[in-house]
Write a structure and sequence with these properties.
Interacts with SLC25A5. This protein has 375 residues and is an all-alpha fold. It has 14 helices and 2 strands. The protein has one domain. The longest helix has 31 residues.
């Protein structure tokens, strides 16, 4: 079935904004400027300030949700499902997970390349699968276990590519690259906890995804903005790249922005792109399919890699191509893309295994939420 113009627009928007999000964050890291009190010119290394900007973008999703809701209620026959009422504090735990994982990843992005950053984020499949078995009672099929094992192999290949290219990289030391890679994988453990909590709450309380993202953005923005105050006074030695060697020097960030306005352009690109990316991703799932969303999310890794090569941000390494292909196969198997493709071929449709477990699980969570609401 051919896509409509609106569906094509959504797919293009998701691919574009998803790629801009990572590229803008890396672009900000590459700027240099003098800091406060005319401190010597240094790199813009402020991962926690960047994370605040990302949560501001997520917070915009909450505003978008209420605007869409108001517009829908003006219709003669409203069609938008606003979901059940729920305690917003339910989303505080996943918001804390999101905040922690995001901050760790932005620290890691200062140490490794944008393409490796995006590829290694694929590790979330491994931990999400294992945690969903442990805490959601999900049963993974053989293809999903195979997807997890292949993803692990892909991560090893990408890590090996970073290890080999680290000897030739003038921008980052080998130890920094490997540390950055390990931090990204560590962050995916926390991101997996976030996803499991989100799935449980979103389906159990029938929460609109835009409202869920926006609520987490609200908590993340408020909490991390307040944490910037103590971070300004916590010394971390050589771990930090700011002049005062503290966990986060927010004043230095603003001074650098004032002396190099291009930095604010990169930060705005990060903030605006995350808002549109979340909106487009949710819309793609609704208008097309979750499988299409997975494919587009994998394709943005290619876009980020090609753009990084074109801009001279990194060097070509054949192992990265192999690593990406292996990760893509792992993601495809885990997300049951092979069944989706076979179902489109009439002669192979009978080979597709019918598995209604995810739908049944979501129905169970939704029923639990209704029972709790009635009691």
């Amino acid at each position: 079935m051919a896509w409509t113009n609106y569906q094509l627009f959504l797919a293009a928007l998701m691919l574009t904004t998803g790629s801009i999000n990572t590229l803008a964050a890396k672009w900000a890291d590459m700027f240099s400027a003098k800091g406060c009190k005319d401190t010597p010119e240094h790199k813009f290394s402020h991962p926690f300030v960047q994370a605040v900007g990302m949560f501001l973008g997520e917070l915009c999703c909450l505003a978008t949700f209420y605007m869409l809701l108001c517009h829908d209620r003006r219709r003669v026959e409203p069609t938008m499902n606003a979901g059940q009422s729920f305690n917003p504090l339910l989303f505080l735990p996943p918001a804390l997970c999101d905040m922690t994982a995001t901050c760790i990843m932005y620290v890691a992005l200062n140490m490794t390349s944008a393409s490796s950053f995006q590829m290694l984020r694929g590790a979330v499949i491994i931990f999400t699968g294992l945690l969903s078995v442990a805490f959601l009672g999900r049963r993974l099929v053989v293809s999903q276990w195979a997807g997890i094992l292949i993803t692990i192999l892909g991560l090893v290949v990408v890590g090996l590519a970073d290890f080999l290219s680290g000897h030739k990289d003038d921008t980052h030391k080998l130890s920094e690259v490997l540390t950055g890679d390990l931090l990204i994988i560590m962050a995916q453990v926390i991101a997996a906890v976030q996803m499991v909590l989100e799935e449980k709450f979103v389906y159990k309380h029938d929460v609109h995804p835009l409202k869920a993202v926006g609520t987490e953005g609200f908590f993340g923005f408020i909490i991390l903005s307040l944490l910037l105050i103590p971070f300004y006074f916590i010394p971390v030695g050589s771990f930090s790249n700011n002049p005062r060697n503290v966990l986060e020097d927010t004043l230095d960030a603003f001074c650098q922005i004032g002396k190099n306005p291009m930095i604010i352009l990169a930060l705005l690109g990060n903030t605006v792109s995350i808002a549109f990316f979340n909106f487009a991703g949710i819309s793609v799932t609704k208008e097309i399919s979750a499988t299409t969303r997975m494919v587009l999310d994998s394709l943005r890794t290619v876009v980020i890699w090609v753009v990084s090569l074109a801009l001279g941000w990194e060097q070509f390494h054949g192992l990265q191509v192999l690593g990406f292909i292996v990760l893509l196969v792992g993601a495809a198997l885990y997300n049951d893309l092979h069944s989706h493709l076979l179902s489109r071929i009439p002669s192979c449709a009978h080979l597709v295994r019918k598995d209604d477990a995810p739908a049944a699980e979501r129905a169970r969570l939704l029923d639990e939420g209704k029972v709790e609401e009635q009691s």
